[in-house]
Amino acid sequence: MARYPDSQTQRLDDAARAGWLYYVAGNTQDEIAQKMQISRQSAQRLVAMAITEKLVKVRLDHPVARCLDLSEALKDRFGLRFCEVTPSDPASHSTTLGIANAAAAELERYLSRKEPTIIAMGTGEELRAAADQLRSMDCPQHKLVSLVGNIAPDGSASLLDAVSRAAEIVHAPYYPMPCSVVAVSKAERDSINVQRNIRQVIELAQSADVTFVGIGSMVEDAPLVKDGFVTIADMRAMMVLGSAGEITGWAYDDDGNMIKGITNDRVVGVPPRRNSKTNIIGVSMEPGRLRAIRAAMKGRLINGLITNDAMAENLLKTGR
Fold first, then answer.
1. CB 283, CB 166: distance < 8 Å
2. What confidence tier does 320 reach under pLDDT thresholds 50, 70, 90?
3. Which residues pair with 118 in a beta bridge?
4. pLDDT grade for 319, boundaries at 50, 70 and 90
5. Do 189 and 220 form a contact (C-beta atoms < 8 A)?
6. Among 283, 271, 281, CA closest to 303
7. Would you call 271 exposed, middle or buried from its count of C-beta atoms within 10 A (0-12, 13-18, 19+)?
8. Domains and CATH numbers, the chain
9. What is the pTM of this model?
């Protein structure tokens, strides 16, 4: 945990108290000012600080009727077992707003089980943001396991690793995959996959009771390229072969079929499974990933989806 100067620690304590009084106890800012013996302006600033410092995490419990209708329509159209649609903010450029909270709530539903549960997770902005939204829990009976490597091309730990962050918050044992997402060659990938520790993590992930994955696009400015896992030449070659999207680095076409060769020959980790008997929940809402999400559902690579209403409406317009 980060250490703060004493003055900053006191400020955070005051913000936490003000946030609790406002969001939990239902006090007005005037009442908070009176109870904390500060000015109304100070109370207002402390309440705002409680949000900006993520001391308070707000979730909407009331289901929005339009979102419920969209969720049911997506389940019917694409044969999904699970679908959660959140409201969207047309002015926001965030790729995680709303869906991170919804994914965290669904994760907590599994984490609240008394019986031991294996939860597999991919990586990326959406899942890392979902992990950050988890409430503190004690879950020693569960196992959190990575589907993909958590090492960046330069050898550093990935900043978007979701499993380790989630495990830290819910105090559960976790099983990382200490390797890169994409190896430099097929031979290297094969040698990594036969290592005992990697093989054990892969086998554990394959036996997961539920799986959460991000859904990425296969375009020249995709995260796989930006983060240095694949070259722009490789990406262009995959695009020529008809790559529509990727899940944990594995590229697939518009029908959800795995692309043969190039980067798919070098991806380390657990490949997506079609028609899984357990829930595989995709978490994504970025407009540029419409094709990728649609193809993942069409190919039954996912049977659950967490997205926002804008993406849901576009998915329903595209047809089967």
1. no
2. low
3. 143
4. low
5. no
6. 281
7. middle
8. 6-52 (1.10.10), 65-317 (3.40.50.1360)
9. 0.85
Summarised one tens digit per residue, pLDDT across range 249-275 is 999 999 999 999 999 999 998 999 999
* Token pair for 235: 């990406």
- Sheet with 245-247, side-by-side order of all strands: 216-217, 245-247, 250-252
Q: Which amino acid is at 288?
A: G
Contact 157, 188 (CB under 8 A): no
Q: Which residues contact 285 (CB under 8 A, 6 or more apart)?
A: 88, 95, 96, 98, 99, 126, 307, 308, 310, 311
C-alpha span between 181 and 117 (Å, rounded):
25
CA dist 146 and 159 (Å) reads: 14
Residue 212, beta-bridge partner list: 121, 281
What's 25's DSSP letter? Answer: S
Using the predicted structure, report yes or no on whether residue 61 has a pLDDT greater than 90. Answer: no
Distance (Å, whole) CA 26 – CA 233: 56
